[in-house]
Design goal:
By secondary structure, the protein is mostly helical. The protein has two domains: 68 residues, no CATH class; 54 residues, no CATH class. The chain contains six helices and no strands.
């Protein structure tokens, strides 16, 4: 897979459009697009979708840091005690975050030490 270097003009344009981070992977992505005979429109679509995803991830990480959320507290790292009874389907539904899109709230109730803070942080 041969990669073509990014020219100075293209790099300037990317930076002017605040797309400078694309320069890191653009040569490899272009080579893959050529290899798979991807159309120009599909290549551009993939490139921009990746950039949107990268920005959303970075934005979420920055908001998480600003909110003081512990990155170790994730849904997949929460472990319920064997004797804890909870609605597994409801937890899975909460993890989709659809309640936020629906402009609804969630209240997590339970005894001390069952992981309410962990779940709330993970949802955050």
């Amino acid at each position: 897979m041969t990669t073509q270097p990014i020219g100075a003009d293209l790099l300037r344009s990317l930076k002017a459009l605040k797309l400078g981070a694309l320069a890191d992977t653009l040569p490899q992505r272009a080579a893959l697009a050529r290899q798979h005979k991807t159309s120009h429109i599909n290549f551009l679509e993939q490139l921009l979708a990746d950039e949107v995803s990268r920005r959303e991830s970075r934005s979420a990480a920055l908001r998480s840091i600003k909110a003081g959320l512990d990155p170790a507290m994730r849904i997949d790292s929460w472990r319920a005690e064997d004797d804890l009874r909870y609605d597994r389907e409801l937890l899975e539904e909460l993890a989709t975050l659809r309640f936020i899109e629906a402009k609804q709230s969630a209240i997590i109730l339970g005894p001390v030490g069952v992981g309410k803070t962990h779940l709330a942080t993970a949802l955050g």
